[in-house]
């Protein structure tokens, strides 16, 4: 399945995995729209994306705003949801307000999009989860639960939205702005530790995850699948 002239929406396309996906899809000939809550991030992303793209400011935690946008924007060939603004922490260290906000952003935001978007038959919806659904971490209990919930949601959506195809891509440690919250030495130590532990011997790059997302979008026989792109993290 070609992406030439395909109409693609990338929610969370202003940075990291989402932006890498938008750039790769534009390079394959698609017409791209990126969505994000942040106008500043959208402006910066559009400079990287170039004339093949357009941008819309959208907070997917706002169900009414999501309904309104998809009621006006027409039909898509492919929709990708990589947006998530989540804090992580141990069971007794993550406040309940932050825990609920994480669920609102990553799970309910994806649910609102899936419920409202219009995708042509044979097109695709792709969500992004994470390896903690497969390999729970005591320091990120809720994150693992949210990722597992997303993957379960996608399997149900693959039935409910058929013949639209619904898949999930599940990465592990990937070099994106998400890790900029750490100081440079701590970030490099995290990357080094992961590279030494993962069977692949390296951490992910945003482009690695983008390639898997576009595989899910363009393979007409893939639906209801969770595609691990984690360097083997789930194995160890």
Q: What is the 3D form?
A: globular
- The CATH topology name reads Rossmann fold
Largest sheet, described in full?
7 strands, parallel
Number of domains: 1
Radius of gyration: 17 Å
Class per helix and strand makeup: alpha/beta
Q: Estimate what percentage of residues fall within beta strands.
A: 15-25%
Helix content: 40-55%
N-to-C terminal Cα separation, in Å? 34 Å
CATH architecture: 3-Layer(aba) Sandwich
SSE string:
EHEHEHEHEHEEHEHE
The total count of helices amounts to 7
How are the secondary structure elements laid out?
Blueprint: E1 7-11, H1 16-27, E2 31-36, H2 39-49, E3 53-57, H3 63-72, E4 76-81, H4 96-116, E5 119-128, H5 141-160, E6 165-171, E7 174-175, H6 184-197, E8 204-205, H7 206-218, E9 226-229
Parallel strand pairs: 1-2, 1-4, 2-3, 4-5, 5-6, 6-9, 7-8
Helix pairs in contact: 1-7, 3-4, 4-5
Task: Please outline what is shown here.
Helices cover 43% and strands 20% of the residues. With 236 residues, it is an alpha/beta fold.
What would your notes on this structure say?
The chain has a single domain, classed as 3-Layer(aba) Sandwich (Rossmann fold), CATH 3.40.50. Strand 7, helix 6 and strand 8 form a beta-alpha-beta unit. Helix content is 43%, strand content 20%. The protein is of the alpha/beta class and 236 residues long. The protein has 7 helices and 9 strands; from the N terminus they run E-H-E-H-E-H-E-H-E-H-E-E-H-E-H-E. The longest helix has 21 residues. The termini are far apart. It has a 7-stranded parallel beta sheet, with helices on both faces. Strands 7-8 form a two-stranded parallel ribbon. The model has no long low-confidence stretch (mean pLDDT 96). Helix 1 packs across helix 7, helix 3 packs parallel to helix 4 and helix 4 runs parallel beside helix 5. The chain is globular and about 45 Å long.
């Amino acid at each position: 399945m070609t992406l030439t002239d395909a109409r693609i929406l990338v929610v969370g396309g202003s940075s990291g995995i989402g932006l890498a996906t938008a750039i790769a899809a534009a390079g394959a000939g698609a017409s791209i729209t990126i969505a994000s809550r942040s106008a500043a991030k959208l402006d910066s992303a559009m400079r990287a994306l170039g004339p093949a793209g357009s941008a819309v400011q959208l907070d997917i935690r706002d169900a009414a705003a999501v309904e309104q946008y998809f009621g006006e924007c027409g039909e898509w060939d492919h929709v990708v949801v990589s947006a998530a603004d989540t804090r992580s922490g141990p069971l007794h260290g993550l406040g309940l307000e932050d825990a609920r906000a994480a669920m609102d952003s990553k799970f309910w935001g994806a649910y609102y999009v899936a419920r409202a978007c219009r995708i042509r038959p044979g097109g695709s919806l792709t969500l992004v989860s994470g390896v903690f659904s497969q390999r729970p971490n005591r320091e990120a209990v809720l994150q693992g639960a949210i990722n597992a919930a997303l993957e379960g949601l996608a399997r149900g959506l693959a039935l409910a939205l058929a013949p639209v195809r619904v898949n999930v891509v599940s990465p592990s440690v990937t070099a994106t702005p998400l890790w900029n919250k750490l100081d440079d030495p701590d970030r490099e130590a995290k990357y080094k530790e992961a590279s030494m532990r993962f069977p692949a011997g390296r951490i992910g790059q945003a482009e690695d995850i983008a390639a898997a997302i576009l595989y899910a979008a363009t393979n007409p026989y893939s639906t209801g699948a969770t595609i691990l792109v984690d360097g083997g993290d789930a194995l160890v």
